[in-house]
């Protein structure tokens, strides 16, 4: 029961990470205009995401515009789109695979070894979706923001800082990684005891049959 509970906890954390990755991908606050400097006009705030850019006025109004052309987007935006979509797809497949291999489900209940392997495959999918896709996308995008911010040739009013979507993406990546690792570590557990065949009954002396 303890192993099943740990497995369920890992699945829950990975599911929360999956939802966080979807939210991060859809959010428009991947980077926000910086207020560093003395000549910054704070009457409006600019946000840019993977799919649209928004301008928030000091009056409380927000106007958003979807990007017109994919080919005109910077390379980090195109790459982040591809990585995040791939990450979401792998997490979706990982949820289905891990659900089949979990001990609290009845699928493959007659073959415990095969069931553990399926759960292990689901955990590996979560780790791949996080380490290879989501974490690469958010870290690469954040590194480009940092480089341009400290570039002396970047105008002060064109500098951006980390947006909320990056922090959501990093948090979701951590949950997905922890959940996938718990699924992988829990799959190798086997019953402690060994089963032996019952002892054969010894025949009574003098009862041998010819």
Automatic annotation (TrEMBL):
Protein name: Claudin
Residue spans crossing the bilayer: 83-106, 118-142, 162-185
Membrane topology value: Multi-pass membrane protein
PROSITE patterns, sorted: CLAUDIN (PS01346)
Family: Belongs to the claudin family.
UniProt keyword list: Cell junction, Cell membrane, Membrane, Tight junction, Transmembrane, Transmembrane helix
A Pfam family the protein falls into: PMP22_Claudin
Domain of life of the organism encoding this protein: Eukaryota
First-listed, main subcellular location of the protein, grouped into a coarse class: other
Biological role stated in the UniProt entry: Claudins function as major constituents of the tight junction complexes that regulate the permeability of epithelia.
Taxonomy of the source species: Eukaryota, Metazoa, Chordata, Craniata, Vertebrata
């Amino acid at each position: 029961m303890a192993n099943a509970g740990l497995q369920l906890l890992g699945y829950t954390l990975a599911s929360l990470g999956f939802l966080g990755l979807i939210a991060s991908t859809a959010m428009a606050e991947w980077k926000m205009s910086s207020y560093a400097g003395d000549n910054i006009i704070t009457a409006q705030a600019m946000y840019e995401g993977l799919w649209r850019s928004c301008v928030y006025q000091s009056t409380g109004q927000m106007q958003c515009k979807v990007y017109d052309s994919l080919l005109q987007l910077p390379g980090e935006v195109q790459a982040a789109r591809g990585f995040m979509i791939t990450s979401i797809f792998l997490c979706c497949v990982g949820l289905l695979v891990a659900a089949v291999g979990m001990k609290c489900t009845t699928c493959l209940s007659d073959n415990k070894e095969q069931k553990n392997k399926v759960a292990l495959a689901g955990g590996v999918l979560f780790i791949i979706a996080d380490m290879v896709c989501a974490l690469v996308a958010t870290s690469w995008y954040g590194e480009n923001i940092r480089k341009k911010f400290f570039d002396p040739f970047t105008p002060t009013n064109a500098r951006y800082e980390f947006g909320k979507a990056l922090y959501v993406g990093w948090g979701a990546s951590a949950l997905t990684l922890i959940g996938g690792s718990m699924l992988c570590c829990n799959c190798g557990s086997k019953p402690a005891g060994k089963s032996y065949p019952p002892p054969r009954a010894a025949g009574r002396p003098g009862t041998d049959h010819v």
